[in-house]
Amino acid sequence: PNNGKFTITTKQFSGESTIRIIDVLGKEILTKVVSGSDAQIDLHEQAEGLYYVIITNNTKLYQSKVIVKK
Predict the structure, then answer these.
(1) Is the alpha carbon torsion for 28, 30, 21, 13 positive or negative?
(2) How wide is the angle at C-alpha 27 spanned by C-alphas 26 and 31, nearest 5°?
(3) How far, in Å, CA of 58 to CA of 24, rounded?
(4) What tens-digit pLDDT sequence spans the chain (70 residues)?
(5) What pLDDT is attached to residue 12?
(6) Rounded to an integer, what distance in angstroms lies between the CA atom of residue 52 and that of residue 7?
(7) What's the pTM value of the predicted model, to 2 decimals?
(8) What pLDDT, on the 0 to 100 scale, is given for residue 32?
(9) How far lies 42's CA from each of 19, 21, 60, 70, in Å?
(10) Cα-Cα-Cα-Cα dihedral of 57, 35, 12, 28, to 10°?
(11) What was the pLDDT predicted at 64?
(12) Are 29 and 63 in contact (CB under 8 A)?
């Protein structure tokens, strides 16, 4: 669990990548486009709980989960 603030490293993705954060109900909470760098994610204003992190670009897809606990 984390407090809602975390960093996602997208260096393994070449070119532009899209980071999407989805809640357990399927609602898209955040969308961020990055280009081969670290992305600061801030969910501290969101409710505690489970969120899905989806990173995509033209050739790769990565999915993970994060638990926000304050």
Answers:
(1) positive
(2) 115
(3) 25
(4) 899 999 998 877 778 999 999 999 999 999 999 987 789 999 999 999 999 999 999 889 999 999 999 8
(5) 79
(6) 14
(7) 0.89
(8) 95
(9) 12, 10, 24, 13
(10) -50
(11) 96
(12) no
Q: What is the pLDDT of residue 58?
A: 87
Buried b (16+ CB within 10 A) or exposed e, 30-41: eeeebeeeebeb
Cα separation values, 17 from 4, 12, 44, 48, 50, Å: 21, 10, 23, 26, 22
17 class by beta-carbon count within 10 Å (0-12 exposed, 13-18 middle, 19+ buried): buried
> Which two three-digit tokens encode residue 18?
């899209």
Taking the CB of residue 4, how many other CB atoms lie within 10 A of it? 19
Query: In whole angstroms, how far apart are CA 59 and each of 8, 14, 17, 26, 36?
Result: 18, 9, 10, 24, 14
